[in-house]
Each structure stands twice: as structure tokens, then as C-alpha cells.
Write a structure and sequence with these properties.
It is found in: Cell membrane; Endomembrane system. It is a peripheral membrane protein. By secondary structure, the chain is α+β, with helices and mostly antiparallel strands. It is 26% helix and 41% strand. It contains two helices and ten strands. Helix 1 (90-105) runs antiparallel to helix 2. It is elongated.
């Protein structure tokens, strides 16, 4: 399978920069799959999980919202946040998830409700990525 270059960048750092075989990213309309020689594309991304296939193995990252550009040179993803599974703290995620559920159960409104719902969504996909923590050793990631 032919590879292409993938860069994942946040405002704070370059999270990932490698040749990969395939990519799956979350959008408002579902998951977009990208392979080498994909047609040029620009797309908004939603919070969720990125799946990267490289050297026959799958790797996962939890991302915030952002954008993806696919060109003949490769793929660039610019997102508000991106974390490898080994960077996530399960206790902190579960604490945030509990706080979000409590806020929603207490019928908060307006901005507080939106914040609680976003926190709950983020904690759900972060836990999903965290469960995959052993799929990519920390020493093989870009920090």
C-alpha cells in the first residue's frame, strides 16, 4: 500500500509527523477515510478520534475540532487539541465526565449546559482512545 505524509498540528505543538498508509477523521457528516492519491480536499473536523494506519498497525488520537487539508503532497490537520492515548489521564477524564453528568442532571442552562455537554462528549472519546493505549508506544510519537 502506498503511503502519504501526515502532519497533525495544534496551537501548542506538532503532535504527529510521519508517513502513513491510511487515515480516518471525524467530520460533522461522519468519518472521512483518506488513502494515498486521495483527491484534494478541505474539510472541517469535529471533536473525536483519529485513526491512523501505518506499517500495518492502527494508532488513535483524541482531537478537538479543526480542519484537514488533503493535497498531492500529503495531509495537514490543524486542530485545537490532539492527544495520544499515553498522554491521557484516566482519573482526570472520569472526574470531568462525572462533573459534566452532574451539571446536566442539575438542569443547568445556557452556556453552562453547552460546556457540560461538550465536556461529556470529549470525555467519552478520550476514554475510547485511552482504552487503546497499548497500540502505540510513547517513544514512537512526536511531542
Amino acid at each position: 500500500m502506498k503511503n502519504f505524509h501526515l502532519d497533525i498540528i495544534t496551537p501548542d505543538r506538532k503532535v504527529f509527523s510521519e508517513e502513513v498508509a491510511a487515515l480516518g477523521v471525524p467530520t460533522a457528516n461522519g468519518i472521512i477515510g483518506v488513502l494515498a492519491l486521495h483527491e484534494p480536499l478541505f474539510s472541517a473536523l469535529t471533536e473525536g478520534e483519529i485513526k491512523i494506519t501505518s506499517s500495518g498497525k492502527d494508532y488513535f488520537l483524541a482531537i478537538g475540532s479543526g480542519f484537514m487539508e488533503v493535497t498531492k503532497k500529503g495531509v495537514t490537520i490543524l486542530v485545537s487539541s490532539a492527544y495520544h492515548a499515553h498522554e491521557l489521564n484516566e482519573a482526570a477524564i472520569k472526574k470531568a465526565q462525572t462533573a459534566a453528568k452532574e451539571a446536566i442532571a442539575n438542569h443547568v442552562k445556557g452556556v453552562e449546559l453547552g460546556t457540560a455537554q461538550a465536556l461529556l462528549r470529549r470525555s467519552q472519546f478520550e476514554l475510547k482512545v485511552l482504552r487503546r493505549r497499548h497500540t502505540r508506544p510513547p517513544d514512537q510519537s512526536i511531542n
